[in-house]
Amino acid sequence: MESCFSTTISSSSSPFSIFSIQGSSSNVGRKFSKSCMHPQLLSCQLPKPFLQLNGRPKYRLNQRRSAYLSSATYKDPISAEKQGWDLGRFFKTLYFFNGPPSPAKIVEFIIEKLSGSSPEESEKKMGTSDYVLVVGATGGVGRRVVNNLRKKGLPVKALVRNEEKARKMLGPDIELIVGDITKESTLVAQYFKGVKKVINAASVIIGPKEGDTPDRAKYSQGVKFFEPEIKGDSPEMVEYIGMKNLINAVRESVGLRTGKLLFGIEDQLSKELDWGALDDVVMGGVSESTFQIDRTGGEGGKPTGLFKGIVSTANNGGFTSIRTKNFSSPVDLKAYDGFELRLKGDGRRYKLIVRTSTDWDTVGYTASFDTIGGQWQSIRLPFSSLRPVFRARTVSDAPPFNPSNVVSFQLMFSKFEYDGKLNPTFVEGPFELPLSTIKAYIKDPITPRFVHVSSAGVTRPDRPGIDLSKQPPAVRLNKELDFVLTFKLKGEDLIRESGIPYTIVRPCALTEEPAGADLVFDQGDNITGKISREEIALICIAALESPYACDKTFEVKSVVPFSEPFTVDPENPPPEKDYNIYFQTLKDGITGKESLGQSAIAV
Question: Fewer CB within a 10 Å sphere, N or C end of the chain?
Answer without folding.
Answer: N
